[in-house]
Specification:
The chain has 435 residues and is α+β, with helices and mostly antiparallel strands. Helices cover 30% and strands 28% of the residues. The structure holds 4-amino-1,4-dioxobutan-2-aminium adenosine-5'-monophosphate and magnesium ion.
């Protein structure tokens, strides 16, 4: 009996006969030889069958196999320096679990970006493709790297609710739902709850889905996306910037180290990732506006940056740039103002290089009760749902700060993928909730 082995472990079984359980990803034939590309979730491997070296009924079965046939096969592991995983399999036996005649995605299209419109309705199958597989494996690595980093820095993970009664990031992108007859919303951000938890645990973070009814169709916007949100009691903006820098350096290095195969599949220019070292440039909003004007942008001072501006700013640096001190009036209600420039927020947007734009937004939080009440009112928000949040400023208030990292935008940057819809298993977009 051959042992069931996964493709990622084949290298440890050179010379042995093993069993693989997977799917037929691709195949080609050349005279008396058949080449099968088999995948099993952990990788792809070439299986070679030579006529006369395999039982005739097994060899005959190969020509009838369709793409994505589920198959169980036995083969002998052979070292091959030219093979992507360093090994190939010489086929001994093969049985078919199911042989689907009409797999709806032609193998050429699966890897072909211009056809995304046709592939999105087939997302439940498209995720089997090599590129999608590589992107989602890197997503997993980014998640784990973030979790490991935060824990190593003494942050603990706690999860805020998703059903909430108030806005965090403005009222225009709220998804309203009916909560037993009361109006409620899907969470835009767990931040306010993380602030409460930071007063209990000092250093906390959340990692979960957040929702924005974004009316825009851009390469950076999803209606449902995942955010990692640290909140840190007694921390300042400068503490946040140092943390962000160390965190992104760690995450990128970890992907480079652990996900080389996947980066190769995506043809990612890894020299751009190797450049992600400390220190990151730190510039103010004013510097960023000057930079835009020097680049010929007709950009009015005091406005928020749009996608084009963010792209232009981030393209000016080879590593993430941290833009601080935005005008308070274009930022969220909870942000602390700079005492020396009261119209500026003590905040940061981190723009990823290569034109990817904002991946992180964070700030110091206003900790004074009456000032915060005034900000809530100035933003035309009702006070009642924020009563518990205001309590935090009544009972042992402290300076504190935190940020949110958008997972899909971070993965898009690291993988070099143009659009965030390919960096989440099942994207929710303005015009799409299927599949
Ligand atoms: O800048 P944002 O809106 O900040 C917050 O929500 C804060 N409350 C976070 C905090 O301080 N705890 O969002 C943070 C990040 C953005 O930088 C971006 O990466 C991502 O979340 N993001 C989106 N990603 C995909 N689709 C969308 N519609 C996104 N909106 C924000
Ligand atoms: Mg933001």
């Amino acid at each position: 009996m051959a042992r069931w082995v996964y493709i990622e472990d084949l290298k440890q079984h050179v010379g042995e006969e093993v069993e693989l359980r997977g799917w037929l990803h691709n195949k080609r034939s050349s005279g008396k030889i058949r080449f099968l590309i088999v995948r099993d979730g952990t990788g792809f491997v070439q299986v070679v069958a030579v006529k006369n070296q395999v039982a005739p009924e097994v060899f005959a079965r190969l020509d009838d196999l369709f793409y994505e046939a589920s198959i169980i096969l036995r083969g002998k592991v052979r070292e091959d320096a030219r093979a992507p995983g360093g090994v190939e399999l010489d086929l001994v036996d093969l049985s078919v679990v199911q042989n689907p005649e009409d797999y709806p995605i032609p193998k050429v299209r699966e890897e072909n970006i211009p056809d995304v419109g046709k592939l999105l309705p087939l997302r439940h199958l498209w995720i089997r493709g090599r590129r999608q597989w590589a992107i989602l494996r890197i997503r997993d690595e980014v998640v784990r790297a973030l979790e490991d980093f935060m824990h190593a820095r003494g942050f603990i993970r706690l999860d805020p609710p998703i059903l909430t009664a108030m806005a965090v990031e403005g009222t225009t992108t709220l998804f309203k739902i009916d909560y037993f007859g009361q109006p409620a919303y899907l969470s835009q951000s767990g931040q306010l709850y993380m602030e409460a938890l930071a007063m209990s645990h000092g250093k906390v973070y959340s990692f979960g889905p957040t929702f924005r009814a974004e009316k825009s169709k851009t390469r950076r916007h999803l209606a449902e996306f995942w955010m990692m949100e640290p909140e840190w009691a007694y921390a300042t903006l400068e503490d946040l910037l140092d943390l962000v820098e160390d965190m992104l350096v760690y995450v990128v290095a970890r992907v480079l180290e652990q996900r080389k195969t996947e980066l190769d599949i995506l043809e990612r220019d890894t020299s751009r990732l190797e450049a992600i070292r400390k220190p990151f440039p730190r510039i103010t909003y004013d510097d960023a506006v000057k930079l835009l004007q020097e680049k010929g942008f007709d950009f009015p001072f005091g406005e928020d940056f749009g996608a084009d501006e963010e792209t232009a700013i981030s393209e000016s640096f080879d590593r993430p740039v941290m833009v601080t001190h935005y005008p308070a009036k274009i930022k969220a209600f909870y942000m602390k103002r700079d005492p020396e420039q009261p119209d500026r927020a003590r905040c940061v947007d981190v723009l990823a290089p290569e034109g990817y734009g904002e991946i992180i937004g964070g700030s110091e939080r206003e900790e004074d009760h009456d000032t915060l009440v005034r900000y809530i009112q100035e933003h035309n928000l009702p006070l009642e749902p924020y009563r518990w949040y205001l309590d935090l400023r009544k009972y042992g208030t402290v300076p504190h700060a935190g940020f949110g990292l958008g997972l899909e935008r971070t993965v898009a940057w690291i993988t070099g993928i143009h659009h965030v819809r390919e960096t989440i298993p099942f994207p929710r977009l303005l015009d799409r909730i299927y599949p």
